[in-house]
């Protein structure tokens, strides 16, 4: 059976959520490099992340499921749709790692000179339409 990588993750939890969804739809899949990233998250960049592999024959169905997930609007804890404060769009990147601001710039400089993983970033929503972070 010929397998291909459908998506790459930096977080084992997100990888398992999509894996469970695909398996519930009848698509066999497995995670590659999950254990090494779970043991030491800094190895994520060395191994290329956690790879979700599926059979080549199921690519069309899996991509349709991914589109359905991406098109579903994000909801907050009160079940209200999260929208961009600038343009009102609901097309958002979730858990976008942002280093904007003085702390982010300082962190990037220190990380560069010390050759380490960035020590400061924050997870934000980022609008796919206007690029605003919030």
Automatic annotation (TrEMBL):
Q: Which UniProt keywords are present, listed alphabetically?
A: Membrane, Transmembrane, Transmembrane helix
Q: Which residues cross the membrane?
A: 104-121
**Which stretches make up the DUF2007 domain?**
9-69
Pfam family, any one = DUF2007
Write down the InterPro entries for this protein, in alphabetical order. Answer: DUF2007 (IPR018551), N-reg_PII-like_a/b (IPR011322)
UniProt superkingdom: Bacteria
Asked if the keyword Membrane belongs to this entry, the reply reads yes
Give the matching Gene3D superfamilies.
UreE, C-terminal domain
Supply the name of the protein.
DUF2007 domain-containing protein
